[in-house]
Amino acid sequence: MISIRKLSFRTKINIKNIQHTVAIFRNEPANWIGVLLVCLFAYLVIAPIISILLNAVTVQTGDAFRTHAAAGSWSSYYLSRTLLSAMSKLLLWQPLVNTLSIATVVVIGTLVVGVPLAWLVQRTDMIARKWFISTLIVPFMLPSWTFALAWKTIFKNSLVGGQPGWLSALGIKTPDFIAYGYLPMVIILIIHFTPLVILIVGNAFKRFDSHLEDCARVLGAPLSMITFKIILPLIRPALLSAALLIFADCIGEFAIPYILGLPVHFNTLSTQLYRALDSRQNGVAAVIAAVIMLMGIVTLLLDVRMVREAKRFVTVGGKGSIQRQTKLGRWRYLCAVFPMSFVLAGVFIPLLALFLSTIMILPGRFDAANFTLNYWLGHHLTTVAMHNGILLTKAFYKAIANTLIIVGSASVTAGILGLLVGYAVTRSSMKSVSLFLRQVTFLPYLVPGIAFAAAFLSLFAVSHGPIPALYGTSVLLIIALIAEKMPYASRSGIVAMTQLGKDSEEAARVTGANWFTRMTKIVIPIQIAPLTTGILLPFISGIKGVSLFIILAIPATDVLSTYSLRLIDYNYDQAANAVVLVIALISWGGTALIGKLTGNSLADGLEK
């Protein structure tokens, strides 16, 4: 009898708990929205990563004979082949060494170039300082492979077929190590990522209190001691953060090694992963992808730790702090030579070289008869597969349409989901849901794009239950791009919703407005600027991105970036360079549009 009463009492408690939970979900939509988003991102982010990791330890279809095991069974074959076999040096270790070597030298190079530039534009009265603030960051707005194609246009030699580079056409023989491989890749990546150092370190210089320098000078400290004992230690968190971010980006860089590395068989982890997938070595590709993921995650987790430790380096002195500019005197004109040289190398020369290459019949000849607009607007060209100029080619407009549909749909969806993530994170009473959404939507940022694409391919290449195989469809590209760009959209949404109080929404609730009405009539109109940013940032990044599309796209779903790379493979250099110029124009214009809509730009952080 007592046991029955105890059971009845427990049943009543459980029923009350269930009723209480249901009431919470009914009265606070952020809870059920959060749960739905948890399920969605668990499938779009975590499931692909788990799938690619499983591919590394399970026998793939077609490998039963060589592994002596049935397809789908557990096996260490791919781990052993990639890490320990006679082929492991070719498959993993040499590309790993190449990747680490490039990333390390690029980090050092960007700091050597970027820190002085940041100091000149932020802490001196150098001539044309404000103009340089805006112009020096342009190389970071452009697709990284813009510079690779410009380099190839100038330095290409006879090692690769097709038209020669400008120097070769002028009779100047370009050595292979200058035309392709390690050296040009390092130089180009330094040019591309130096603006990131200027942005991060420049902001650190901006917050630096000049009183510290003044006190050191009064005490008789020489300039070298002030620099190495005061300034550099206090901006160390910014230096480390920039270094780690650039290192992580170099690990996943694909287009530059693809254009300049493959002709001389100089492989990095990203190109080796692509080659493994292209040759149907899915198990080996899974191991390489896992290595890339691990490197990216460790690097960016170190960056998160650096950000936390940065709180120990307080460089703002409160109301009495000042940021005094160094007077260069007669040197203010001469010092401008350094940033101007960088602008020439990183902006004017690459873009001019690409444009001139699109209007030249023969490369390297600058007489008037050699210039033409046929590669833009011409008919009946002599090339085998392209009979019209790029602006009269259907495939070009199909690539534009695919780009707008795929990237546009993904960006709009990511922006809306980002706002919903912000709503759930800030409004949900379930702390576990909020914490999970914060972490899972940031996770794609920790995984280099080429590895994330491989993860999606491993999950969606075949059907799973009611979900059909999506490889070769635009749907796969859209959902992969949504997942990859969620770090941008979710952080924009979380910041926006954190700044929005509950008062306006509660007032609407009291008047009887349902959740959908509150979102469409109150929340979204108030947060239209962050929502726009959450859409435009993924759009710009997606327009110039290539790592994700090169793995998942097929000719029927070509976007502008993959279309240009296919033209490169066919040695249609003029057409490829024209497409890249269009991408660069869209990317730059989109970045400027964000500045107009939000009232901020990348350079604003450097201005006083």
Automatic annotation (TrEMBL):
Its main location: membrane. Keywords: Cell inner membrane, Cell membrane, Membrane, Transmembrane, Transmembrane helix, Transport. The chain crosses the membrane at residues 32-54, 96-119, 131-151, 177-201, 238-260, 283-302, 333-362, 399-421, 442-461, 467-483, 528-554, 574-594. Residues 96-303, 400-594 form the ABC transmembrane type-1 domain. It is found in: Cell inner membrane; Cell membrane. SUPFAM superfamilies: MetI-like. This is Iron(III) transport system permease protein. It comes from Celerinatantimonas diazotrophica.
